[in-house]
Design brief:
The complex is a heterodimer.
Chain A (H helix, E strand, L loop, with lengths): L6 H11 L27 H30 L9 H4 L2 H26 L3 H31 L8 H34 L3 H34 L1
Helix pairs in contact in A: 2-6, 2-7, 4-5, 4-7, 5-6, 6-7
Chain B lengths: L1 H4 L21 H23 L9 H20 L9 H31 L3 H8 L1
Classes of the chains: A mainly alpha, B mainly alpha.
């Protein structure tokens, strides 16, 4: 017994219960033993998909770290142009932050509703998520527009180049995420809560929450440290 | 119902999975708690940046600490990355990601600060070129 399940035990469980029944329960406690030790057969597809997407998100965050490093290095290279203190409007940034945080929350509620197979509730929360994301993008575009109008465009100084690259890259992610959100809403509406749709929804949720994490680093390092301290 | 829901009883977890079992919290309560903590930390960040409550030179450190705390809240309550055995792979990947991010950011800032420090002042450089 102490040796754990042998391959033939696992095979027997597999034949009896199909691919989803993993592990071996020698003591009859009714709970499954395999915990990623390799003895329980392949992990469910949902776990593998989520893990793969998590790796992608981490690589995306590593890409952002390059932009953050560039910004941190160039933050004071204003070339005699306007500084962050003169340009940033913290009230607008606070509204943007609130929108993105609330949308992260409603996105989570949408996922909970989807796991409970509630179509209308899922669609409602995803719509709210999308609208909050839209408000965020509009506010950011307005900010960029006003800065460029003032002559503080990305061509003014190294600081502003780094600023537009970093914040713009995040804004682009939110925009693409919004398109993905619309696609997911349509798929859930027309195809229902199939397993593969649920996996896509899981990935979308991870993406949206990761964007909020990047925004936390962004509003702290760019806006609060740039304008306040 | 059955084909998919069966998926949920296993001990492996994908990032983003809810784990309602054990702690006595439902899925929505976890998100609510996360939202409350995140809002509190955000408000604290904005308040500290705009007030004199914290000693001036300490503000950047306070802001960074609040940001790290909030990122932790997001990871645990929204992305559901935990220290449980079923989450080992996700946590290890995260640890690797954090290492790379720190190397890139801290390394760049460190090296560039030293370069700036060691660079000749601009007027002297212009004089030498004449």
């Amino acid at each position: 017994m102490s040796k754990g399940p042998t391959p033939s035990d696992v095979a027997a469980v597999y034949l009896q219960h199909g691919p989803y029944r993993r592990g071996h329960d020698p003591h009859g406690h009714g709970h499954i033993e395999a915990r990623g030790h390799g003895a329980g057969g392949p992990a469910p597809k949902r776990v593998i998909v989520g893990y793969g997407f998590w790796i992608f998100l981490l690589s995306d965050i590593v890409m952002f770290s390059g932009f953050f490093a560039a910004y941190a290095v160039l933050a004071h290279a204003t070339a005699g142009g306007p500084t962050g203190r003169e340009l940033f409007d913290l009230k607008r940034v606070a509204i943007e932050t609130g929108c993105l945080l609330a949308s992260s929350f409603t996105c989570g509620l949408g996922y909970v509703a989807a796991t409970r197979r509630r179509q209308i509730e899922t669609q409602f929360w995803m719509l709210v998520t999308g609208l909050l994301g839209l408000v965020f993008v509009i506010l950011e575009v307005l900010e960029f527009y006003e800065m460029i109008e003032k002559g503080a465009g990305p061509d003014r100084s190294a600081f502003l180049s780094a600023f537009f690259a970093l914040v713009g890259c995040h804004g682009l992610h939110v925009t693409v995420g919004g398109l993905w959100l619309g696609t997911m809403m349509a798929q859930i509406w027309f195809k229902g809560f199939r397993p593969q749709i649920m996996r896509r929804l899981l990935c979308f949720n991870l993406f949206w929450h990761a964007l909020d994490i990047i925004w936390v680093a962004l509003f702290t390092i760019v806006y609060l440290l740039g304008a306040g301290a | 119902m059955s084909g998919h829901d069966e998926d949920w009883e296993y001990d492996d977890a994908a990032p983003g999975d809810e784990h309602a079992g054990g702690s006595g919290f439902g899925a929505i309560q976890v998100y609510l708690l996360g939202l409350l903590l995140a809002v509190g930390l955000t408000v604290a960040s904005f308040w500290i940046a705009g007030s004199n409550a914290v000693w001036g030179p300490g503000i950047p450190a306070a802001l960074l600490a609040l940001a790290v705390a909030q990122i932790g809240v997001h990871l645990v309550f929204f992305l559901h990355i935990t220290s449980g055995p079923e989450n080992t792979n996700n946590t290890l990947a995260l640890a690797f990601g954090v290492m790379i991010v720190l190397l890139v950011v801290v390394g760049s800032v460190w090296i560039m600060a030293h370069l700036n420090h060691n660079m000749m002042p601009m007027e002297q450089m212009l004089k030498m070129q004449r």
